[in-house]
Amino acid sequence: MKNIGLVLEGGGMRGLYTCGVLEYFLEHNIDFNYIIGVSAGACNAASYISKQKGRNETVNISFSKDKRYMSIRNLIFKKSYFRWDFIFDEIPNKHHLFDFEAFNNSSCKFLIGATDCATGNAVYFNKEDVGKNFTPIIASASLPLISKMVKFKNYELLDGGISDSIPIKKSMLDGNVKNVIVLTRNKEYRKGPIKHTEIYKLKYRKYPKLINAIFNRYKNYNETLDYVEKLENEGKVLVIRPSKPLEVGRVEKDPIRLKALFDNGYEDAKKQF
To answer: Is the entire prediction scored with pTM above 0.70?
Structure first.
């Protein structure tokens, strides 16, 4: 669809909802010429762009209990709860092959949002930056406290959700007057202030602007949700969000719950389109 942006929120394993939505899009040849995602939204967009039906569901659910995928052990020995070399090297090159050729040859513009730790501001990378290593996508999905900072293009980067959880304004600035937004929270949800602030102050003491961004994230997130609902009421965006109560957390491992969330996303997309 031309001049219509697809905006994908993150949310860790709550991104299985987005996987379901994108699967419906793939099955019905619904394409966008502009896609922007952060964190899990950016991760799931990759297989949608390469048009690999079923890949997101298979990878996210079949490996959910694999300690190499996510575990405290990874955090201790690899300094990251999610083991990125397994997720973005071993899986796409050995277990469930990723179609790099189809991804790179896609005509759509794909932006990946991450957070610059020096400034606390959002930075965006292009499809051409992804390469064979998925580095900007890894950066976008690197959650504070449980992931290492990612060095890329003279930046030190973390989770894109810190600075721009739902990048609708960026999509509109890039000329998309109409947008489809996929959220991973129920409509009534609003984020509260962060807890355990002293841990963040200690961990990121050399990055005061990052700390400020983390502490103010809930305000910016809630303001963006209010803005999204305003646009929705004006008919300027189509919002797809979980219609059933959310039972999946950011690091959920239960394949039954993950599959139910995937199915909810698929059915919600079906109802909307």
So the answer is: yes
